[in-house]
Every structure is written in C-alpha cells, then in structure tokens.
Amino acid sequence: MPLKLIESTMINNVISPEYDEDGRVLRRVRSFVRRQGRLTSRQQQALDNMWPKMGLDYQPELSDMEAIFGREAPVVLEIGFGMGASLVTMASQNPEKNFFGIEVHVPGVGACLASAEEENLSNLRVMCHDAIEVLNNMIPNQSLDMVQLFFPDPWHKVRHNKRRIVQPEFAQLIRNKLKTGGAFHMATDWQPYAEHMLEVMSEAKGYSNLSENDDYVPRPDSRPVTKFEMRGQRLGHGVWDLIFERVE
Ligand SMILES: C[S@@+](CC[C@H](N)C(=O)[O-])C[C@H]1O[C@@H](n2cnc3c(N)ncnc32)[C@H](O)[C@@H]1O
C-alpha cells in the first residue's frame, strides 16, 4: 500500500464512528485528542518499509495472537507507547516474548517502526487505533501475559480527569484480556494520577497488588528508563510504578 494511503488510513481510522439507536453519532469520552503532527522522513520511510511487516489494521473481529506473530509465545501488550522507546528496548531484550503495541499518534508509530527496523526485531507488531476499541473487539479474553501502561496522559485538570484511561471499567477490560496469573503494570510521574490508579485498582475485583505495602512497587528492571524519565529524575520528579496480578 503506498505510504500516503497508509498514513491517511491510519489517521482516519484511529476511532470508529459509533451511533445511538436513532442513528445519531455518539461522542464517547476518549483518553486522547487527535493530533495530526508531521512525519519526519525517517518515520515516513519506516511506515513505508515496516508497516506491511509489523503493522496491523483495525478490524472489529477477534484476532489470533499465534497467527499474528507466527509463533506461540507469551504476549506483552503496551498501550500508548509514544515513540516506542520502552517497547523497542523490551522487545529487543526479550526475543522469547511477543510484543504488541497500540498507539494513536501516527508519528509515534513511525518512530517506533524506525527503531524496530534498526534493531532488526521480528517479535513486535503495532496498531494505530484507540486501544479501548482494540481491546474490546480484537483481543481475545485470557490471551495476554502482561499489559503495560507507561506514563499515560495525566489529564491534570479536574474537569478532564474523566479522560484518564485508568477507570473501573478499564480495569475489568484489562483483567478479562489477561491470563490468570498475568500482570498489569502501570507507571506515572504525576502523583495525583498514581493515587487515582491505586484507588481504582485496589477496588477492582479479581486483582492482587504485588506491592509489599499495598501501594507502589520499586521500578522493576523490566521497565527501561526513558530519556523523558531521566530528565524528570534530574529535576527531582517522582515516578510511581504499580503492578497488579490477575488472580481470578
Ligand atoms: C504521555 S504519552 C506517553 C508515551 C510513552 N508511553 C512514554 O512513556 O513516553 C501517552 C500516549 O498514549 C497515547 N494514547 C492515549 N490514549 C490512547 C488510546 N486510547 N489508545 C492508544 N494510544 C493512546 C497518546 O497518543 C500518547 O502518545
């Protein structure tokens, strides 16, 4: 598929139109706002070369993880991977696992594919669509070993808090997709969001907090430190990691 077409398809399709019974367009609260953003030539080239190999188009039907990756292996899903820094590092460090990334920002998808090409990865697949729709319609229940949500948009203003992706319904959506014994790993540098995540997840049915004190865990070595986080560390900002296991 020519690149321009790939790009416009992805931009136009990051959300699917939804209608009420009277055919009126439903406006669901989403965890992102759509940004256009220019593609660098590196991102554009990567979309051209790598989308046919690693990109998956959205379709509202269940997919088969084994068929997508061409092998059976533990699956790690990362939601909102940004430019893909942590996702590509983890995929490169864990060739025995399958990594699946979802991001709505097209330049981020391009950047991720460019890094994946440089690392010569074969265990990564990406989608450019609202992760909520992908989870609801494409990912089979009990199919994921790990779900990662690193530095999700904090939506600082109180009137925007409803846009935060971590909500009770989201916690149950993730739980259904995890295998029993699988884990949901979140990280944020915004303390009020960390507290919100802790409250939502502590009240969510079917999970156990892996923190010794029933709050946060030290950053596991599995989560690479990104440039963004290193800058925060230099400025003295905190980061909170939470890991909850699906127990039932
Ligand atoms: C603050 S950025 C963090 C990016 C990256 N995880 C990092 O640590 O640098 C949050 C990202 O989540 C993406 N995002 C937000 N809601 C999403 C959704 N429902 N589906 C897919 N991506 C989403 C945004 O486009 C954005 O790139």
Architecture overview:
There is one protein chain. With 248 residues, the protein is α/β, with parallel strands linked by helices. It has one domain (41-246): Vaccinia Virus protein VP39 (Rossmann fold, 3-Layer(aba) Sandwich). 36% of the residues lie in helices and 18% in strands. The chain has nine helices and eight strands. An eight-stranded mixed sheet has the order 1-4-3-2-5-6-8-7, with helices on both faces. Helix 2 (41-54) packs across helix 5. The N and C termini lie far apart (43 Å). The model has no long low-confidence stretch (mean pLDDT 93). The structure holds S-adenosylmethionine (SAM). S-adenosylmethionine binds next to helix 6.
List its traits.
binds S-adenosylmethionine; globular; 248 residues; 8 strands; single chain; alpha/beta; 8-stranded mixed sheet; Rossmann fold
